[in-house]
């Protein structure tokens, strides 16, 4: 059988060689590469290949290559790779567009012949369908199709036949027909295509594609498809009729479901909308098809199509139609979707609608339409709260007149909430939860809570084209309703002319107050408004917080507030000033006017800082009940420096829970940094000192006994910090607080732990007095109390427990008060760190910075040693970041120390001594970094050094150490190095000294000998390995080599070699020692120094005898790299091939996964086999060897000496040659043999 197989193979006819008569394939490889690149999935590569192919064909001018290109591109239209088909289609379209000598008829015939749907095999019909489609698409892209009407007709007919293969092409053929139709002339359509499209046009209401084909034809050829023609095709002369509404609705639903995953508006829907407008049947179409048809389905694709159609219709509708559509059921359904889509993992249509509205406002030139749209979306409310966000970006596209009208509408809506004009709705869950209906007061609160942030966001959005009058108008409106009420109208105060129809409640006023201070913070950083060149030039200088005439925005508001205070007949303050507050206000105004007169002569940081602070304090008088009156008179004091007064004021203001105040303080301090004195800086650092008592700190923690005031302050604080919307739920909060109080009382009783002994004694007395406790005199405890005694006993016990509960609650309140006070102090210190950070950023080169080293270190040390909560961790993290990045690693540092050299040296010694005594290594790292910073300050600027550090310095420049006492500093660090090397638990680390060696080469030279000594005498192997690492880093430094050039360098290397040779065989130490040895040997050989390397060589050779170094790894590779410099090459491991005798040794062959051993296979004895196969089957029954005697179970998979492999036994039993045996296996099971046949396992190694 095997011989017959091979004979058959030999007798097969030889395949004919590929003929290339023109020699194209062999002559130009570049030409063929274009087609390979066109088929690649990367779009950039495909486009580049098409461009290069066109250029190549233009230069070539060979008809044979053009014919081959046409054939190759037509073949590629049905490529099995999906990404390749568009590439070949585009390439074919470009070739037909450029080379007009190739007729479209020729190309179309080749496409039909190559991708014939009738003759193609069934499994290739999908590729053939795509080949036809992309071929027609290429003809359409060639822009030559309208010139050949007959080809157009055949393309349309081909597309009609392709529409039957919807499972492959979906609606692509119909869309392509629409594209061809839009490019066809009216004459060609009427004479050629109309007859071919008769069936599709007549059944237009069947599918979205056919309807779109009709609509496009009606828009493109209105003179052909006249009402009479439509009457003949459809039975009606118009599209939008009551009879057609059900059909149109079904078609739109089909279109909505077809684009469910694409999330876009079907073109047929927009075409229908345009036809309805053209036929003047828009109201009928919108009411019957959209509202009564599409919206009746469950929320899903049909609803989303309605929303998209609404957004797309905005530019097409008149003002009346806009108001009608935007106040209808589609908008209400959209609002319900926005509210329900707030849950996670739900599709959100709001961003898409925002894009529609933004595009409409940007392209609309009619302010009336713009105003109608933004007002309509603002009136879409959920129980009074509009569904659009308060910060809506689309407002930036409003024209100035529309923007002013919108602001006026918002103000009027705030004063007179007209809920009946809102398109309000409630979700199903809201209706279930509110059985009594929605309260009007709550809706008004929710509407006003949205309007105020809406107004302020218009000012805060820098993309909105706003004028100064608009900004001031909004600021005055918000300020007035935050702190005043109108009593009588007056033209001098426009805000009094419009009264509130519904008075403001406390919750609304809190929202307005918080919004005002957020607006004030933004106005302090508002750039100049306007489009003039002068404004642009001033904005380049970062002029902020002032109007066009140079007045500060906050000063304008203070003037407005003063006008309100001086006219109590027309405006009444919600919290009238006390006499003391009024004097403070008048004093503040007088001080500001005095400073403004001084600033006219010349603006100084002093006057600017005091103006900002006084105005800030004055405006906060309306919010803070009590304020230190000395703040407004501090500017007149002569004793302290003005900068110290400003710092004291800043520290006082930072204790207020206001983000606005914090930001203003940071800005003011940044302006006065160059004028800050040592006393002012000390006042800041004293706040951070952990050793000082809280009584001595700059913040006073007070606890208001009035719970209502506490609640108000907490709400205000939360609003200031978050600057967001405040959701007030008074009923839920009150219920929750009651529950919490009850639970807190129970916990207070349970947390008592061990019962108080005094309470136990009192309880015993009560029980004994009432006779409820048996005593020794009582003979028995059988006597029971009567009801009256029991009631009396109950009252006494209840009174006792109530008193105990009050005591425990008092302890808990005291504990909470202390905790709250600690939190306030910590928050205050975090704010003070802002001032430290600003000073280091602005005045990093000032000598005053040196006074920050110890206070910051004490903060870090105390924070590391205490168990802290999250707030203290944040404080510690910020302090450590400022110390490390803003102080120690700052590019700008103090370079002139004057006469403070001795003081700094003493501080350096103190820090290094402290660093060695600490128990925490992380804290010691900060002290060590501070010591290096002091050394850098004492050294000052290195002459000749560049900012990037790439300049090569001379030896004299390297030796420059400025004011550093090199001997004293070297002794300090030597002591620290010895301490690290001789102490088992040292807080220091090797990386600290490596950093020292890198930054200061002069000190490195003085410490190297000490480090070399400890390579062998370090107290532990870890210290010895660290010593090797230090020495290696120091010796690798180019600056150190330059400083030790000559005999000192050779002597140091010799000493290092001797110490390295003494190393013992310890893993961690040996790796570092080998790295150091490699550097030593390499440099000695390269520089040809007179250094004896024999001791090191002997030690390395002895290591080889002990460790072997036969494997691979970091230590082994480093060892052989060192030995290579001594001329010893790593020996190669010879791979010895095993002979047949060696293979016969008992080895356990590796099991193949997924294969059943021969002994485990089941035998089919009844089946008759051919002679050859029978022999092979019998071989499977032959045991592989005799089992061993005894009870020990034998490993069947283990091959025994002299045992035949299954393949050898199989071949021997069948009495075949190896070649015959292989042929049999191929015939019997070719698939299995192809992947798993192994000649070595079959015992056929001699054949191969």
Summed up:
The protein is an all-alpha fold. 63% of the residues lie in helices and 1% in strands.
Describe what this molecule looks like in 3D:
InterPro entries: ARM-type_fold (IPR016024), DNA_pol_V/MYBBP1A (IPR007015). It is found in: Nucleus. This protein has 1248 residues and is mainly alpha-helical. It is 63% helix and 1% strand. The protein contains 58 helices and five strands. The strands form two sheets. Strands 2-1-3 form a three-stranded mixed beta sheet. Strands 4-5 form a two-stranded antiparallel sheet. β1 (380-382) and β2 (385-386) form a beta hairpin. The radius of gyration is 46 Å and the shape is extended. It starts with a helix and ends in a 12-residue tail after the last helix. The model is unreliable at 1-10, 625-638, 694-754 and 1167-1248 (pLDDT under 50).
Topology:
Elements: H1 2-11, H2 24-27, H3 29-38, H4 43-60, H5 63-76, H6 84-98, H7 104-114, H8 125-141, H9 149-162, H10 166-169, H11 172-182, H12 186-196, H13 198-202, H14 208-220, H15 227-234, H16 245-258, H17 267-278, H18 282-291, H19 301-313, H20 319-325, H21 329-340, H22 350-363, H23 367-378, E1 380-382, E2 385-386, H24 400-415, E3 423-425, H25 428-433, H26 440-460, H27 468-483, E4 484-486, H28 506-523, H29 533-540, H30 553-565, E5 571-573, H31 579-601, H32 605-619, H33 642-654, H34 659-672, H35 678-688, H36 707-722, H37 730-750, H38 757-769, H39 787-842, H40 853-865, H41 870-888, H42 901-917, H43 921-939, H44 955-959, H45 966-982, H46 990-999, H47 1001-1017, H48 1021-1036, H49 1038-1043, H50 1047-1061, H51 1067-1087, H52 1094-1107, H53 1114-1125, H54 1140-1143, H55 1171-1181, H56 1206-1214, H57 1218-1228, H58 1230-1236
């Amino acid at each position: 059988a095997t011989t017959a197989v091979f004979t058959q193979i030999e007798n097969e006819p030889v395949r004919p060689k590929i003929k290339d008569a023109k020699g194209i394939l062999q002559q130009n490889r570049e030409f063929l590469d274009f087609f390979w690149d066109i088929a690649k999935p990367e779009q950039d590569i495909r486009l580049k290949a098409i461009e290069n192919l066109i250029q190549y064909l233009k230069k070539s001018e060979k008809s044979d290559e053009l014919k081959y290109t046409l054939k190759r591109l037509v073949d590629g239209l049905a490529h099995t790779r999906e990404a390749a088909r568009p590439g070949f289609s585009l390439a074919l379209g470009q070739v037909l567009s450029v080379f007009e000598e190739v007729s479209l008829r020729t190309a179309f015939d080749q496409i039909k012949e190559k991708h014939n749907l009738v003759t193609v095999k069934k499994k290739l019909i999908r590729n053939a369908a795509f080949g036809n489609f992309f071929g027609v698409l290429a003809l359409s892209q060639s822009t030559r199709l309208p010139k050949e009407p007959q080809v157009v007709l055949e393309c349309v007919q081909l597309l009609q036949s392709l529409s039957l293969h919807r499972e492959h092409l979906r609606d692509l053929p119909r869309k392509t027909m629409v594209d061809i139709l839009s490019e066809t002339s009216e004459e060609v359509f009427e004479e050629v295509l109309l007859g071919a499209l008769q069936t599709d046009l007549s059944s237009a209401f069947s599918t979205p594609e056919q309807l779109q084909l009709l609509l496009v034809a009606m828009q493109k050829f209105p003179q052909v498809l006249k009402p009479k023609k439509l009457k003949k095709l459809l039975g009606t002369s118009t599209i939008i009729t009551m009879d057609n509404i059900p059909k149109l609705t079904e078609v739109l639903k089909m279109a909505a479901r077809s684009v469910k995953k694409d999330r876009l508006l079907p073109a047929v829907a927009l075409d229908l909308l345009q036809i309805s407008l053209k036929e003047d049947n828009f109201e009928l179409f919108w009411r019957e098809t959209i509202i009564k048809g599409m919206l009746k389905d469950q929320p899903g694709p049909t609803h989303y199509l309605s929303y998209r159609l609404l957004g797309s219709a905005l530019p097409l509708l008149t003002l009346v139609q806009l108001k009608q559509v935007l106040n209808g059921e589609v908008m209400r359904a959209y609002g319900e979707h926005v509210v329900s889509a707030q849950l996670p993992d739900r599709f959100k249509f709001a961003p898409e609608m925002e894009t529609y509205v933004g595009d409409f406002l940007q392209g609309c030139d009619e302010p009336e339409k713009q105003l109608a749209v933004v007002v309509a979306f603002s009136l879409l409310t959920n129980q009074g709260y509009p569904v659009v966000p308060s910060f809506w970006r689309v407002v930036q596209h409003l024209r100035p007149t529309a923007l002013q009208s919108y602001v006026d509408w918002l103000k009027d809506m705030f004063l007179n909430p007209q809920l009946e004009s809102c398109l309000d709705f409630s979700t199903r869950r809201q209706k279930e939860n509110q059985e009594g209906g929605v309260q009007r007061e709550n809706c008004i609160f929710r509407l006003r809570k949205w309007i105020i942030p809406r107004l302020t966001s218009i000012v805060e959005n820098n993309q909105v084209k706003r004028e100064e009058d608009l900004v001031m108008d909004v600021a005055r409106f918000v300020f007035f309703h935050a702190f005043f009420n109108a009593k009588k109208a007056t033209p001098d105060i426009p805000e009094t002319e419009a009264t509130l129809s519904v008075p403001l409640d406390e919750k609304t006023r809190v929202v307005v107050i918080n919004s005002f201070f957020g607006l004030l913070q933004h106005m302090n950083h508002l750039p100049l408004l306007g489009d003039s060149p002068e404004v642009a030039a001033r904005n380049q200088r970062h002029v902020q917080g002032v109007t066009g005439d140079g007045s500060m925005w906050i000063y304008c508001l203070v003037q407005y507030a003063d006008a309100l205070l001086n006219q109590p007949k027309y405006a009444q303050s919600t919290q009238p000033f006390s006499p003391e507050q009024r004097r403070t206000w008048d004093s503040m105004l007088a001080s500001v006017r005095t400073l403004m007169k001084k600033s006219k002569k010349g603006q100084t940081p002093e006057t600017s800082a005091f103006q900002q602070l006084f105005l800030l304090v004055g405006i906060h008088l309306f919010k803070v009940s009590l304020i230190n009156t000395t703040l407004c008179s501090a500017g007149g004091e002569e004793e302290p420096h003005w900068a110290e007064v400003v710092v004291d004021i800043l520290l006082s203001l930072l204790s207020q829970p206001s983000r606005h105040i914090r930001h203003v303080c940071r800005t003011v301090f940044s302006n006065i940094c160059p004028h800050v004195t040592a006393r002012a800086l000390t006042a800041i650092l004293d706040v951070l000192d952990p050793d000082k008592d809280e009584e001595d700190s700059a913040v006073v923690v007070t606890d208001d006994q009035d719970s209502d005031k506490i609640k108000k302050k907490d709400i205000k604080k939360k609003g200031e910090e978050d600057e967001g919307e405040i959701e007030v739920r008074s009923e839920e909060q009150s219920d929750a607080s009651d529950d919490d109080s009850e639970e807190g009382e129970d916990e207070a009783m349970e947390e008592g732990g061990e019962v108080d002994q005094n309470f136990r004694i009192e309880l015993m007395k009560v029980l004994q007095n009432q006779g409820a406790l048996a005593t020794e005199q009582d003979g028995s405890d059988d006597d029971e109390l009567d009801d009256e005694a029991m009631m009396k006993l109950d009252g006494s016990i209840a009174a006792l427990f109530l008193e105990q509960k009050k005591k425990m609650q008092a302890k808990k309140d005291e504990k909470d008060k202390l905790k709250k006070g600690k939190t306030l102090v910590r928050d205050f210190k975090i704010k003070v760190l802002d001032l430290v950070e600003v000073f280091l950023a602005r005045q990093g080169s000032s000598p005053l910075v040196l006074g920050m080293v110890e206070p910051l270190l004490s903060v870090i040390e105390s924070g590391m040693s205490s168990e802290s909560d999250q707030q203290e961790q944040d404080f510690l993290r910020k302090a450590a970041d400022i110390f490390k990045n803003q102080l120690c690693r700052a590019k700008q540092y103090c370079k002139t120390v004057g006469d403070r050299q001795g003081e700094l040296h003493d501080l350096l010694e103190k820090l290094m001594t402290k660093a060695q005594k600490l128990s925490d290594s992380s804290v010691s790292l900060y002290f060590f970094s501070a010591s290096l910073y002091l050394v850098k300050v004492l050294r000052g600027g290195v002459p000749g050094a560049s900012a990037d550090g790439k300049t090569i310095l001379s030896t004299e420049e390297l030796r420059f150490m400025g004011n550093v006492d090199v001997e004293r500093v070297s002794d300090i660090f030597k002591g620290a190095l010895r301490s690290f090397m001789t102490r088992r638990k040292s807080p220091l680390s090797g990386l600290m000294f490596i950093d020292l060696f890198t930054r200061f080469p002069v000190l490195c030279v003085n410490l190297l000998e000490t480090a070399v000594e400890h390579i062998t005498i370090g107290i532990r192997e870890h210290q010895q390995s660290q010593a090797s690492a230090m020495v290696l880093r120091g010796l690798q430094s180019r600056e150190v080599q330059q400083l030790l050039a000559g005999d000192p360098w050779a002597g140091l290397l010799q000493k290092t070699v001797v110490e390295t040779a003494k190393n013992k065989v310890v893993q961690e130490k040996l790796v570092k020692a080998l790295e150091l040895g490699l550097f030593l040997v390499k440099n000695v050989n390269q520089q040809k120094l007179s250094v004896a390397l024999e001791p090191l060589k002997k030690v390395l050779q002895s290591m080889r005898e002990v460790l072997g170094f036969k494997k691979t790894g970091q230590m082994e590779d480093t060892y052989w790299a060192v030995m290579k410099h001594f001329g010893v090459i790593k020996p190669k491991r010879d791979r010895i091939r095993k002979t047949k005798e060696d293979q016969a040794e008992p080895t356990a062959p590796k099991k193949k996964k997924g294969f059943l051993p021969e002994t485990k296979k089941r035998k089919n004895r009844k089946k008759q086999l051919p002679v050859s196969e029978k022999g092979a089957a019998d071989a499977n029954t032959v045991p592989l060897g005799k089992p061993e005697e005894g009870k020990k179970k034998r490993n069947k998979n283990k091959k025994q000496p002299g045992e035949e492999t299954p393949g050898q036994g199989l071949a021997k039993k069948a009495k075949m040659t190896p070649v015959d045996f292989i042929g049999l296996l191929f015939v019997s099971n070719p698939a299995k043999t192809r992947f798993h046949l192994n000649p070595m396992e079959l015992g056929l190694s001699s054949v191969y």
